[in-house]
Amino acid sequence: MDDSNETAPSEFILLAFSNLHEWRFVVSGFMLTVYIFTLMGNSLIIFIFCLEASLQTPMYFFLGNLSLLDICHTTTTIPQIIVHLLSGRNNIAYGRCKTQLFAFILFLGTETILLAAMAYDRYVAICHPLRYTLIMNQKTCVQLVSMSWFTSSLNATVHTVFTFNLPLCGANKINYFYCDIPPLLAISCGDISGIVTALLATAPIIGFGPAFCVILSYIHIILRILKGHHSSGMKKAFSTCTSHLLVVSLFYGSTIFTYVRPFSSYSLNKDRIVALLYSVLCPMLNPLIYTLRNKDVKGALRKIRMKKLPF
User: Fold this and answer.
1) Residues in a beta bridge with 91
2) Pairing of strands 11-14, 173-174
């Protein structure tokens, strides 16, 4: 019987900020600021969606779910990072590390599929405007969101089980901000071909598949626009596409770079910088990208303020 599990560590040491002792207050202050803005921005979107009847549409239903995901996503990592910086203790228990990995992969995977659903929504709105309400009905929207959560939960379960069944042989120092697949593979002393194969096998569903759907949707949208169909409704729908494309480019580019490439090309020092894009910056930028250029959201916010906050 393999005794690798007997030597598995009871906790892990996260080394990403170990050399920033003199800057720990600055970095923790930055992280706290980002986290507060992320919570405020995404909570505001959910608040507006729930209160304003004019925003009870498929696009804002997806956007509300995206905001919820961003809140969950950042809460999985940033509070822990702040505590480690301020306390000087960089340890995380084995069980908490496993839970963090599962939650992080769950929220990350759900977001990749949800962004594809949002691209499909824009495709239907622009390319099939007369059938939009028929195709993107409430049942379809709920099914798309439910499918994203269900598929990602299966993906997270598979990767968590595979990753934590690898023999670690007592190694417990992770050169990263949080528990993630690449840094845990780096400290494994066993054969990692199984988990690497699992990553590549699920890539069409969680990574390349949704990205391909987004690209295909926007190819159809661009072709439709080039044909000269410029109704006011279509222009309004297309105005949200540029915001969505910016979010998708940042998010898909960074996640695919991190998870879908040969393990031999991994560099944790570089990967930590890329990880900041999809785990810290994207959740903060999403509300700004989607609301600053959105007249509907700004109008709804003014209406809510007049109704609920008359002062």
Assistant:
1) 13
2) parallel
Instruction: Give the CATH number, domain containing residue 98.
Output: 1.20.1070.10
Q: Is the pLDDT of residue 125 over 80?
A: yes
DSSP designation for 173: E
pLDDT single digits (tens) 215-255: 898 888 888 877 765 555 555 556 666 666 777 777 777 77
Q: Measure the CA–CA gap between 273 and 298, rounded to whole angstroms.
A: 33
List the one residue out of 201, 172, 202 whose CA is nearest residue 186.
Answer: 172
What string of DSSP letters covers 42-91? HHHHHHHHHH-GGG-SHHHHHHHHHHHHHHHHHHHHHHHHHHHHHH---E
Neighbour count for residue 305 (Cβ, 10 Å)? 11
* Residue 221 contacts residue 129 (beta carbons within 8 Å): no
Average pLDDT for 88-116? 90
Whole-angstrom Cα distance, residue 208 to residue 206? Answer: 7
Residue ranges of E strands in the chain: 11-14, 91-93, 173-174
pTM, full prediction: 0.83
Collect all residues with Cβ–Cβ distance below 8 Å to 166 and sequence separation of at least 6.
184, 185, 188, 190, 192, 195
Q: Domain of 223?
A: 4-308
Place of tokens 């297309």: 238
Confidence class for position 110, pLDDT limits 50, 70, 90: very high
- Mean predicted confidence (pLDDT) in 67-95: 89
Split into its structural domains, the chain has a count of: 1
